[in-house]
UniProtKB/TrEMBL annotation:
This is Tripartite tricarboxylate transporter substrate binding protein. Keywords: Signal. Residues 1-19 form the signal peptide. It comes from the Bacteria. PANTHER family: BLR1237 PROTEIN (PTHR42928:SF5), TRICARBOXYLATE-BINDING PROTEIN (PTHR42928). It comes from Paracoccus yeei. InterPro entries: BUG, Bug_dom1. Belongs to the UPF0065 (bug) family.
């Protein structure tokens, strides 16, 4: 009788195991990636290239949704408050996860996220229109000292404005910032003659360089891409003036979900077509993930906190 009871118990256990639904393997439904900026900027374009590539790898739709407003705060906050299951992600970058929490009153900080991957890096450049009287950065600096010039950016607490302010402070000039919703909109204002200068990243400014409607006076680092254009360091300006684009998830996303996204991203970023697409945008592939990358971001976050404290003095 005991043997029969034991056998029945064993059978019951096996039956129960088969009756229990298997744990769903990520992903089993569409993924949504919020870009907290308007369409056409470097963050939007790099995210779309990534999304198209990982969609094929993961086998589910990866939809990019633009939710601009509040210098990236509206879209970013939505992801912070989303369910931490990996199905709602955000395009992360210098502006919305490192600059804004230090320079604005927002409901989140760096620790409100689970960093997933860094995709690309883009150098900040300072540009003028084709008819500008300023043919060099030295002439521009002198012009800004002689009279108050305007400079386009994309929000008071955006990475462009903050980095530009650091440059201006070190070079000894001031400008009046004219804020657009995106880098692309800012460049349209520049080539339309509505502002004297603009700071921007290659995805937004490179087409205007090629068309001859804008001139690049100085850029973060010298490169073959912008042959003959000096760097900020050439003028004694210290710092790394670079934007970046990556993917973050809400805090608390399971590690196995992060690992799956990292694995798919690593595969995507090795695809020659993806690399070429990033080059065409004007972004450099800079794929990173893991503890060392997160530690570097924390260092930059600390530097931004110091810069914010300095500006409040």
């Amino acid at each position: 009788m005991k043997k029969q009871l034991a056998l029945l118990a064993a059978i019951g256990t096996v039956a129960s195991a088969f009756a229990m639904p298997a744990a769903a393997e990520f992903p089993e439904k569409p993924i949504r990636v919020i870009v907290p900026w308007g369409a056409g900027g470097d963050s939007d374009l790099t995210t779309r290239v990534w999304a198209d590539a990982v969609e094929k790898i993961l086998g589910v739709p990866v939809a990019v949704v633009n939710k601009a407003g509040g210098t990236g705060v509206i879209g970013t906050t939505e992801v912070v408050n989303a369910k931490p299951d990996g199905y709602t992600l955000v395009n992360a970058g210098l502006s919305n996860v490192q600059v804004t929490p230090n320079f604005s009153q927002v409901s989140y900080d760096f620790d409100s996220f689970t960093p997933v991957v860094k995709l690309s890096a883009v150098p900040l450049g300072l540009l003028v229109g084709k008819d500008s009287p300023y043919n060099s950065f030295e002439e521009f600096v002198q012009g800004a000292k002689d009279k108050r010039l305007t400079q386009g950016s994309w929000g008071a607490a955006s990475s462009g404005t903050i980095l530009a302010s650091i440059v201006a402070r070190q070079a000894g000039y001031t400008v009046d910032y004219v804020h657009a919703n995106t880098t692309a909109e800012s460049m349209v204002s520049l080539i339309g003659g509505h502002i004297d200068s603009a700071v921007s990243f290659p995805p937004a400014f490179e087409p205007h360089l090629k068309s001859g409607s804008a001139r690049l006076l100085v850029v973060n680092k010298k490169s073959d891409q912008f042959h003959g254009v000096p760097s900020f360091a050439d003028f004694g300006i210290n710092g790394d003036f670079e934007g970046w684009s990556g993917i973050f998830a809400p805090k608390g996303v399971p590690q196995e979900v992060v690992d799956k996204l990292v694995e798919a991203s690593a595969q995507a970023m090795q695809d020659p077509q993806v690399v070429k697409a990033f080059e065409n945008i004007g972004a450099e592939v800079d794929f990173r993930h893991g503890d060392e990358w997160v530690a570097d971001m924390r260092d930059t976050y600390g530097m931004m906190a110091e810069a914010a404290a300095e500006m409040r003095k």
